[in-house]
Amino acid sequence: MIRQDSSGLNESETGTFPIPMVFLAARFRPLERLSFEAEGRGISYSGNDVYSFIGRVKVRIVGPLFAAGGYRYEKAKLDEKDVLADVEFSGPFLEAGFSF
């Protein structure tokens, strides 16, 4: 949103559109209840880049219930019409859920 307080004028623009991304995943399951997983996804277009990488260890607790932990790295570099963003996130994570 762009706002000019002195005149009370403001303007904003929003939009939603699908972004196709490349996605690769791999899983190694040495035991029925234990798996090692890796995921990568990303897109690069006209100087704008978005990437995400995940590595996790997943344990099936009982039935479809699982618990997992791993490491995630995310990077976005955008340069579009005077809007500049260079954002990077990384760190460990925990998750639990149902797999079906």
What count of structural domains? 1
General form: elongated
Distance between the termini: 42 Å
Kindly state the mean pLDDT as a whole number?
A: 89
Beta-strand segment tally: 7
Describe this structure in words.
The structure is a single chain. The protein has one domain. Helix content is 0%, strand content 75%. The strands form two sheets. The protein has a five-stranded antiparallel beta sheet with strand order 3-4-5-6-7, with no helix packed on it. Strands 1-2 form a two-stranded antiparallel sheet. It has strands at 2-4, 9-11, 22-31, 34-45, 48-62, 65-80, 83-98. It is mainly β and 100 residues long. The protein has no helices and seven strands. Strand 1 and strand 2 (9-11) form a beta hairpin.
How is the topology of this model organized?
Blueprint lengths: L1 E3 L4 E3 L10 E10 L2 E12 L2 E15 L2 E16 L2 E16 L2
Summarize the structure.
The chain is mainly β and 100 residues long. The protein has no helices and seven strands. The strands form two sheets. It has a five-stranded antiparallel β-sheet with strand order 3-4-5-6-7, with no helix packed on it.
What are the key terms here?
100 residues, mainly beta, 5-stranded antiparallel beta sheet, two-stranded antiparallel ribbon, 0% helix
